[in-house]
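Please go through the sequence line and token line underneath and see whether the fold suits the sequence. See right below:
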Amino acid sequence: MPTPRQDIIEIFEGAFHASRVEKVIEERIQFHGEAMEADGFHYALTAYDRCMLIAIGKAAESMLSSFLARSGSAAQLFEGVIVAPDPVVVPSERFVAFHAGHPSPNVESIRAAETILKLLNDLTERDLVIFLISGGGSSLMEQFLEEGTSLETIAATHKALVESAAPITAINAVRKHLSSVKGGRLAAAAAPAEQLTIAISDVPAGRLDALASGPTTPDASTLADVYDAVERYGLMERLPQQIAARLADHSLEETPKSDDAIFARSRWLVLMDSATLEAAAEKSATEMGWNVVIDNSCDDWSAEAAASYLVERVRELRQEKERVCLLSAGEVTVLVPHGSSGKGGRNQQFVLEAAKLIVDEEITVLSVGSDGVDGNSPAAGGVVDGATVARAQREGYPLNDALAEFNSYSLLERLQDAIVIGPTGNNLRDLRVLLAP
């Protein structure tokens, strides 16, 4: 009979395989010659002067290649841009690609924003633009509203926000109000063209405006949210002086809202989100004979608090039934000290926090990022069990030391418990699995 560790690996691998981008695009987007149908939205492609495809995010390449493969003869009608964190193959001479930066913007991130804005500003009401948006777009494409803001300042701003322990919605509220390509401002640039956004979401359900900082959607966040986040998470001390000054003098402009005329010809379609990944994991675990419970209540909690809650939850469930599988999707937060040189990410920090709590217990815990990358490490996440703390001690690297140094990857790699799968071409938030036989 497989061990819980073998099962937990198979559960996450099965969930990732079942949530492939090409599979869902084949199911949800149909082409009939040169006409396209996407979840009931119909487009006669030859009726437009130009058909533009703008793919941005960690799933940009898989979304674009799957879309064009699905489109058949209609592929020749499309032109556009792809912005991704890894080198990509340009599908034709009608497309330009940018190998942009993540988690911090690079020169290509700035060039991508400039190119996309120029293309969109040239569109008319006789054109169609389809945005293929996935997570990671916040850093992959960037240009600040304040002209002349240096890449160094932009990158430092992104880094400060990501490492602040603020939830993603608060981080994105700040980013959107600083940027000329976020918070609906790409939609503003493209108007009055017809617009369709096709999304693979790595943000909480119902918060599409947080995905890639909502470049094409009405922004639900406000300037009041920005200033609240700045105060609540101590951002003034972390942000570059130039940005802190803008926030201090309250000189930022409001982003486009749902009643803005720029969205009159816009539609939005979510292909997948974390619930897709979770449902696939539930199916896989159930087929293995595990009793599955889903609990996403610790979304956006700190890694420490989330670990404490989920470990206690699986203990309670184990009192009621055998072979319990507790699933939890979403993201946890970590506060990384200034100057930290450790390697790791929120998933690996979470499993080490959990390992402290399950010493000598028959509980196995896994946490992985669906994009295949966790923080600044080459791993997607890690797996631990009741023996992890003792094994770390024998290796001469106590678990508490790794946590204090934010060096979770170095310990998990040494224990051969880091999960390294490489970029997946997908991004559906994180998946946590706890098994108690």
Summary: The longest helix spans residues 303-320.
